[in-house]
Structures are given as structure tokens and as C-alpha cells.
Amino acid sequence: MLKYIIRRLLISIPELFIISFMIFMIMYAAPGDFLDQYRLDPTISAETLEAMRKEYGLDQPAIVQYLTWLKNLFKGNMGYSFYYRRPVSDLIWERVNATLILSVSSLLFSWALGIVTGIFSALKKYSFSDRILTVVALGLIATPSFFLGLLMLYLAAKTNWFPISGMISTSYNQLSAWNKFKDILWHMILPVSALSLGSFASLMRYMRGSLLDVLNEDYVIFARAKGMPERVVIYKHALRNAINPMITFLGFSISGLLGGALFIENVFGWPGMGRLIYQALIQQDMYLVIASGLISAILLVVGNLVADMLLALVDPRVRLT
Amino acid sequence: MEAVLSVKNLSTYFYMEEGVVAAVDDVSFDLAPQEVLGIVGETGSGKSVTVKSVMRLIKSPGKIVNGQIIYKGTNILEIPENEMYKIRGKEISMVFQDPMTSLNPLYTIGDQLMETIIQHQSVSKSEAYKRAVEMLQLVQIPEPEKRMRSYPFEFSGGMRQRAVIAIALSCNPSVLIADEPTTALDVTIQAQILDLMRSLQERLKTAMIFITHDLGVIASMAHKIMVMYGGKQVEFGSAEDIFYRPIHPYTNMLLRSVPRIDRKIDRLQSIPGQPPRMIDIPKVCTFLPRCPKRTEKCQTAIPPMEEIEPGHFVRCFNPVRGDE
Description:
The structure holds 2 protein chains of 2 kinds. Chain A is mainly alpha-helical. Helices cover 75% and strands 0% of the residues of chain A. Chain A has 13 helices and no strands. The longest helix of chain A is centred in the middle third of the chain and has 39 residues, at 177-215. Chain B is an alpha/beta fold. Helix content of chain B is 29%, strand content 24%. In chain B, the strands form 2 sheets. In chain B, strands 6-7-8-3-9-10-12-11 form an 8-stranded mixed sheet, with helices on both faces. A 4-stranded antiparallel sheet of chain B has the order 2-1-4-5.
């Protein structure tokens, strides 16, 4: 098991190199560069522009730029942001918490709710409540999360029940620890809902389908035929088999932890990585984009590994060698 | 002898969007203690639905619409669903067709065997373990203690079917239903499993319902045979009756379509036509369209089950007689 994990991690190193190189090249291939916005500004002289080009290394060939970045990476330096003129790692580090608060709670929320309602809906197949849940789920799947976010903003603005933007109130610093917690929680409700409702709906449908498939399996009927009470048939024999295919999805969800909230963070003015990356993309702030891409790639590798390990834990047929 | 299981006028229909399928229609039989009843018929003739009805394992859109299933004096159809688990596995248990899918892939053989024993008998875990090992020995699985810890995927098809049989017999049921237990196995393994089932049946004195579409298998297993066609029983009698004096035209033609080692023929006979489409079938004999002996009378009604000779029943207006 340990050998397997080490091997998987070693394999992922060349993968990550290739991914970082591709992101770099794609950014490079995009027309224009970071300095375009300054070129349009008549108050900035040609000499200044040239000096900035030198300073940022944009005058070098692309491959040299990439190799320089790679060399710095080994020294623990992920490069500097052109726009903020600060190390990329500092910028990301400052915002990682806000994003994680948002994405982890939405992950937990959507999974808990999705699994439970999925099971309920499968066990009550074609009943009235199942039909209602189906309609709601399909509606939520069909609605893009940013649109859902906008609807919620509208609701918040109309009713004043929820804050429309940000993560903390202006009075945050004067609050006691408990009230600080409550303040963040209050700000979180809308973005977390907007973020989780879509994935909750698809998780519920997957769970429902998976359980319904398993309930028709021979071993479930055999469990019933050998006199197991319905409770045991469903929760021991059917459910564990039905959870199996869901674990792969969990791996994907983990990869989206840092980058998945991009739209929602923008809609709700959440001070997380999503907004940082979005702005960096627009301004062609090269190293910030590469760093965030790399982090997503690492999370995907880790997420898949975690999913495979969980699968091996749940299913004796899966052997990690 | 008093029947341990007595099925009376059982009808199980499936209410599909296209119409009603009379998967089992007016089926009756008695099963005496220690007796082996064979049910033969082609795919779709209602064999499996009959025994699944006995176990009350019919799911919507299927429904048992009529009849009684008397087990040791109690009508099983009147037992509330949440009491049925006391019957299933303990009094009447079942072995399915495909051993590759009958066992839960995520639990060990030992776990699946022990949970059945613990469920039905008030024994401690260690007693259940001992009993489970005995059961694996009984079905001739080598190294039973080691095999308790194995998962189904580590077993071959034959071994899995042995394990399934061990689970089915672990609580000494009075009736064992085997729904084509050897169909999914290759021929040499088939013979082994049949031998095992025969010897266990004799040893444990369990009454058995054995379903198959293989006439050779049934000849070696059953005391009595019920022939089904299109959801109805067409003939019922002792194994000798059915094999030596088949009187329903279907049984008769069916037996002629089996190759025999003592008779040399160039071409096997086949029964012309197709099995009936079962949706909303007319109220006549289901074999009518393929029957060589049909008459005007057949168009008017479903023939009743009639006792032609003691213990030998047939559902036909024009039974085959003698050496026809």
C-alpha cells in the first residue's frame, strides 16, 4: 500500500512538469502580454515599458522564461505577480483560507445532503416525494451556479436577510470570537448554497441511480431470500455496493476545492482564490496563473489517489499494487 | 403424507404498460416432506415466477393476484411482509441460477454465511462460526476455515454455488428451492453440483423444488415433475409418468426433441412455432397455436387440470394416449 502511494506520487512529478509547461505555453500563445495595458497608457514612456519588459523577463524567449521559473520553483519560489509585485505564493496563501472555508463546507454540505436524499429517493422510487426531488434536482442541474448566485443576490438585496458581498462585516474587528464565527457563517450561507446546490443535485441523482441498480442485483435478492430483514438488506448489502461508484466522484470534487468556486467567488465578492485567478487570467499575470493551474493539478492527483485508496478500503476486489 | 408446502391456484400477473402478463396462471401443486419436485419449462414459462411467488419475492409491477401458498398449515400470503424474513432462509430457502452474482462481492463468505445463521438461530458468534465451518465442510469446500475469510471473487463458479448452497441450507430449511442452480456452470461442474445437491437432499431430508429447462438434469433429480408452458402447468405427475407416459402434446413433443442414447435418429424433432407472447393472451390453452392435436373445442375455453390416472394430471382436451 505504502509502496503504491509512493509510486503514484513519483509518477505524478513528470505529469506536473508537463502540465506546468502546457499552461505556460498556452499563456504565452495568447495574444498580447501583461504590459499591453501599460502600452495603452500615454503617460507611460517607451523607456519605462522597456525597463518593465526587462524586469519581468518578458524580453527573453519563452523557453528561457519557463526554465527560469522552473529553477526558481526548486528554490521554493513560485515567481512574482506582475500586477501585485509580490511573490505568488504569498498571494495564494493569503486567500487559500477564504476559498477553503467556502469549498470545504460546500463539499461537505452537498455530499451529506446528496447521499441522504439520493438514498431516500431510490427507496421511494416513483413516489410523490421522489418525483418532487427529481424535478428539483433536474432544475438545479440545469441552472448554472453563477446564475443561481445572481438570483440569490437579488433575493438578498430585496429582503436584506443576507449580506450581498464579502466574507466579513465592516464591524468584524470589534466582534467577540463567537460573533466573528457567526458573522462569517452568515456571509457564507448564500455562496455555499449557490456552490453546493448544483453538485448536491447531481450527487443525489447519481446516488439514486447507483442504489437502484444495486437493488436489482442478485446478491440483494439473495440476501432477502435468505431472510435478512429489509434494514440489513439495504444498509448492509445494497448501500456499500452503491457507494462504490460515488468514490470516484469524490476524487474529482477534491480537485475542484481551490479553483471550483471561481464564478461564485466573483459573484459574491468572496476574497478567495477564484477572484485572484480570474483577475490574473484577464491581466495575463503569467506566474499567478501557472501557480494556480499547478495547484489544481496537484489537487487532482491527490484527489484521484485518495479516491483510489478509499476504493481499496471499501472494495476487497481492488488491490493497490 | 401431509404436504409440507401446498400451492393452490396461484396466479401472479405483471401489470406492464403494454398490458397484463399472466406469468403464472392457476398453478397448484403439493410438495411432500423429503420429496423433490422438478419444474420444467422453457424460458418465460413461469417457473421462476412460481417459486419467487412462494418466497414472496415478487416486486412491482408483479403481483400475486390469486391463490394460497400453505406452508405447514399457514398461508404464507397472509403473513405481513415484515414477518416474512422469519420464513425466508429459515423455513424455505432458495439457491439462484447464477452463483457469480448471488454473493455480495464486498463481504467474506464467512460473513455472509454467519449472518444468516445468527439471523435465524439464537446462537453466539463463535457457535455461528463453528456451524458455518461445518456447512462449508458439508458442501465439500476444501480448507473451510481458510475459505471463511475468502471473498467471493476468490472463488470459482462451482465453489461459489457450493457456498450459496451452504448458506441456503445453513438453517435446516424444510423446503429448498433451487432455481436452475447449474445452468450457469460448465458441464463437469454441473455434474458435481447435482451430485452434491442429491446427496445433501437425502442426508438432510429437505424437500426440494428443482427448476430447470434441462430434461436430463430433472430425470436424475426429481420424484415428481411439473411441466409448465406459457404460465400454466400443463402436466404434473411422477417422474415415470412424465418420462414414460407423457400425455400432454407439449410434454410429448418436448421429450421427442431430446437426443437419446438408446435410439438412433437422423434428425431431432423440434416443436414448430414460437413460445407465446405473454401480453394479454386470449383465454385459451397457451400451447394452442403450436399444438398438432388442436380441435374446435380448444378455441372455446382453457382446459382444466384433470387426473388421468392416479397422481398424473394434465391440462388438455385431447391428451396423447398410448403409443401415439
